[in-house]
Amino acid sequence: MPLRRETVIDAGLALLDEVGLDKLTTRALTARLGVQPGALYWHVKDKRELLGAMAERVMDEAFAAPTPASVSPAPSASGDWAEDVTAFAHGMRRALLAHRDGARLVATYTPLGRSALRAAEDGLALLTAAGVPLALAAHFGDTVTSYVTGFVMQEQAVGGVGDPTADLAAYPLLSRWAREGTPPDRDAAFASGVRLIVDGLRGRVDAGSRGTEGHDDAARGAGADRV
């Protein structure tokens, strides 16, 4: 059976799950596929293109790729931009966690294929339709994806470096936070961070709306004075 690009990507992700990003090589992949290197490079020109295609596949799992013919922005699934953004963030985290080193793969080999660009366009359409200025919407989208990627990179890290002799009693606020403020698990911690980001944008949007209303009221008052 002829080798297909999709088969190469599938095998690459399976190998990633087995050995991790640092040990993934094209030599190991060709051995897994049972083909010569030339057959592999017919579908991907080098390792970087392979990893980019794998990263795009991972991100495809975070959102439903629209049909290529779609040119109109996707409507809000829930009617509430905050709910949709929250759902996307949780879906992206699940997609990254589904593969060993998934977050580092996506962060290093940022996917910019058609489905990723379509999702970004739909996200901007969702936010601007809710009254968010385009520049702020773009910055917000980048903030959300950066938070998700960074959070999962920490989750997937092998281990950290700490001082086992450190006495938290010398740090009263940290001690109090450790006793009272830490979320019960990583899921709760992630959800709390997403809410913080979403609430921040909601506050900016609400403040902007109030400012616009105040400006309109002042303008109407000034007009009445001139009559």
Please tally the β strands and state the result: 0
Approximate helicity band: 55-70%
Q: Which structural class is indicated by helix and strand composition?
A: mainly alpha
Outline: flat
List the helices and strands and how they pair.
Layout: H1 5-19, H2 26-33, H3 37-41, H4 47-60, H5 81-97, H6 102-108, H7 114-129, H8 134-156, H9 172-181, H10 186-226
Describe this structure as you would to a colleague.
The protein folds into two domains: 1-45, Arc Repressor Mutant, subunit A, CATH 1.10.10.60; 46-158 and 169-226, Tetracycline Repressor, domain 2 (Orthogonal Bundle). Helices cover 69% and strands 0% of the residues. It has ten helices and no strands. The protein has helices spanning 5-19, 26-33, 37-41, 47-60, 81-97, 102-108, 114-129, 134-156, 172-181, 186-226. Helix 1 (5-19) packs across helix 4. The longest helix is centred in the C-terminal third of the chain and has 41 residues, at 186-226. The protein is flat.
Which key features would you list for this structure?
227 residues, mainly alpha, Arc Repressor Mutant, subunit A, Tetracycline Repressor, domain 2, 2 domains
Could you give a quick summary of the protein structure above?
The chain is built from 10 helices and no strands. It is mainly α and 227 residues long. Helix 1 packs across helix 4, helix 5 runs antiparallel to helix 10 and helix 6 crosses helix 8.
